[in-house]
Amino acid sequence: MSNPLVSFRHVSKAYGAVQALDDASFSIEAGEVVALVGDNGAGKSTLVKVMSGTIVPDTAEILVDGKPARIQHANDATALGIATVYQDLALSNNLDVVANLFLGHEIHGAGVLDEVEMERQTVDLLGELAIRPRSLRVPIGSLSGGQRQSVAIARSLLGDPRMIILDEPTAALGLAQKQQVLDLVKRMQTRGLAVVLISHNLAEVFAVCDRIEVMRLGRNVASYPCEENHRDDVVAAITGARTISAAASS
Amino acid sequence: MTDTTTKTAAPAAPVSPDGRPEDPTIRTMLRHFVRSDSATGIAFVQVVVGLAAIWTIFAVLNHNFLSPGNLTNLSLQIVAVAAMGIGVVLVLLLGEIDLSIGSVSGLGATAMAALNIKLGVPALLAIALALLGGALIGLVHGLIVAAFGVPSFVVTLGGLIGWQGLQLFVFDYTGAMNVSDPLLLGITGTFFQPWLGWLLLIAGLLIRGALVARVRSRRAKAGLVNVRPWVEGLRFGIVAIVSAAVIVMFVQDRGIPLAVLIVLGLILVMDFIARRTIFGRRIYAVGGDAQAAGRVGINVGRITVWVFMLSGTFAALSGILSATRLQSVTQGAGSGDILLNAIAAVVIGGTSLFGGRGSLWSALLGALVIGSISNGMDLLALASPVKLMITGAVLIAAVIFDASVRRRQAR
């Protein structure tokens, strides 16, 4: 844990009397997959929103590449190389894969779309990630959930981020499709990306992650390497049956 | 229209234009023509089959229906609805509705006539000012929809009533106005010699051919799969044959009507904008899922305002075209069934009422369907209650079809 790519320390956020985050911290290295787990209301989503810039914390100390950084807005996070794929994907179901990948950032000359170039880059990107949608030119709504999730993830990679946050990427997927997404996580890891995985499903978390961070009541309560023999400890930490200091991670 | 794929030189992933893994058989090809997969395509064949059925019925019942004279009349009759339909397509693609277009067309015609006849403004300037007025009205509607989040249904319903009031207010001072300016009458009264039609057709085919060839070579260079040449050739041939048939038909009567050329040109331009530009792509995106579009950084409000401005402009244009064909503007201009006809035409033509799916060509095809039914029933001297009921039934059939496509797509 010498040189984290991104680290957040002393993150606090209160909504009125509710302390959503209470001196939480999070750090990740390049090429690392870190799972963020915890019960509902543990503060995972709030922490993700802080990292992606959609909410501004009351206090936070943010270091990117060891240098202090500020994230006040989603654009700040994007500029720092932090991309987020939300649970609802934000895809336009009536448009095809190519159109969705470039939506909002279309390649064009004088306002006229350059379909050939966009399709070429789509083929390259999807090929690199081994994403094989049924077709690039059918409405994305007619693709399977796993393929849609893959396209949403691929879209977030177009901006060349260094860290990607996946919010419940497998929540609505079938078994085979879950595996597609988890394979994609591994491929992103080999590309050197830092991947933050938010999930309720411990089995799939253990299948891909390097480290697992447990949150409870707005704090980090435990940190484990992703090894099967820690599974009971993780469950205990989530439910609060046992609290182990996360001193090792700092 | 959807593309069909070849597997030649396919990269590792199935990523042809319509990347189906299987080789296209005649059956899959037919399916592509019948069923429209892409957002910008409409179910072309259903509309054409429906139109052919309507034409066959009327041709059997009245041998004058398919005469060049009647078909030329039909073309001029549908010009106003088709022009209004262009705006309707854009608004429906956005997932909104504009109920004010009938009133705006009446007001546009009134403004143009009053400026030209009462105030002596030159015809072209009067037209430009009327179009500008339509755009400003659309701007107001769009701003209200975008800024306050009021449903466009309500905003434009208010517009329907309010702009009609303004039109009547103008008429309080004038009464009916007869359009007599030769330039204005010329818009729907000018017919060109055959050579112009053939010249335009050849130029159009050459441009299309050059563009297709350019895209094909660029795709090949980029390692992307091209549509099979014979499919491209088939499309090219269909366009050429249909266009040539239309020209031959017009030539046997009075010639190539200017008004038809104007509307065709506008549809071509707007179709290009809708399918090939960022602005058009974003209209489809907002219509498909406004929230998702906003999340990727698209300015939904700005797109909305622009589309309502275009809708108002095309409504005013439609009113002007009507006025020059009927050679007069009355208090009732735009208050009849043109609003519902334009919306019905576009939906019959295959553009979805639910947003994000459709094509500019549905304005023309739908206007042709509605116009044919109306024209044919006039030839048969049917009473207007019957006409209304039949038109209504066709509309409902089209909407049922739309809803079933949507359900199948959503899966």
Labels describing this entry:
heterodimer; A: 250 residues; alpha/beta; Rossmann fold; 2 domains; 4-stranded antiparallel beta sheet; 32% helix; disordered C terminus; B: 411 residues; mainly alpha; ABC transporter involved in vitamin B12 uptake, BtuC; two-stranded antiparallel ribbon; two-stranded antiparallel sheet; 16 helices; 4 strands; globular
Could you explain how this protein is built, in words?
The complex is a heterodimer of chains A (250) and B (411). Chain A is α/β, with parallel strands linked by helices and 250 residues long. Chain A is built from eight helices and twelve strands. Chain A has two domains: 169 residues, 3-Layer(aba) Sandwich (Rossmann fold); 73 residues, no CATH class. Chain A has a six-stranded mixed beta sheet, sandwiched between helices. A four-stranded antiparallel beta sheet of chain A has the order 2-1-4-5, covered by helices on one side. A two-stranded antiparallel ribbon of chain A has the order 7-8. In chain A, helix 5 packs parallel to helix 6. Chain A is globular and about 55 Å long. With 411 residues, chain B is an all-alpha fold. Chain B has a single domain, classed as Orthogonal Bundle (ABC transporter involved in vitamin B12 uptake, BtuC). In chain B, 73% of the residues lie in helices and 2% in strands. Chain B contains 16 helices and four strands. Chain B is globular. The N terminus of chain B is likely disordered. Chains A and B meet through strand 8 and helix 4 of A and helix 8, helix 11 and helix 12 of B.
